């Protein structure tokens, strides 16, 4: 698997939270309310199921760090 394939892996909120070092509730809140939520790019599978691309999670974290 190359780096591009690795970045396109879909993560659960719990997995994304582990990467961001926050709770899964925080990730879900960011997906709805954060000013950079479009970068995070939540993917709704159904009304109760949400996933995130790993590349989007990493880009979101970089953008938030740059804003500090």
UniProtKB/TrEMBL annotation:
Record domain Helix-turn-helix: where: 10-64
InterPro entries xrefs: DNA-bd_dom_put_sf, HTH_17
Source organism, top-level taxon: Bacteria
Pfam families per UniProt: HTH_17 (PF12728)
Protein name (Swiss-Prot/TrEMBL): Helix-turn-helix domain-containing protein
Biological source species: Veronia pacifica
Organism phylogeny: Bacteria, Pseudomonadati, Pseudomonadota, Gammaproteobacteria, Vibrionales
């Amino acid at each position: 698997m190359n780096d591009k394939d690795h970045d396109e892996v879909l993560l659960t909120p719990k997995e994304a939270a582990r990467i961001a070092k926050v709770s899964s509730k925080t990730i879900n809140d960011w997906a709805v309310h954060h000013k950079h939520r479009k970068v995070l790019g939540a993917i709704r599978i159904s009304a109760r199921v949400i996933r995130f691309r790993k590349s989007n999670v990493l880009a979101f974290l970089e953008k938030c760090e740059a804003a500090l």
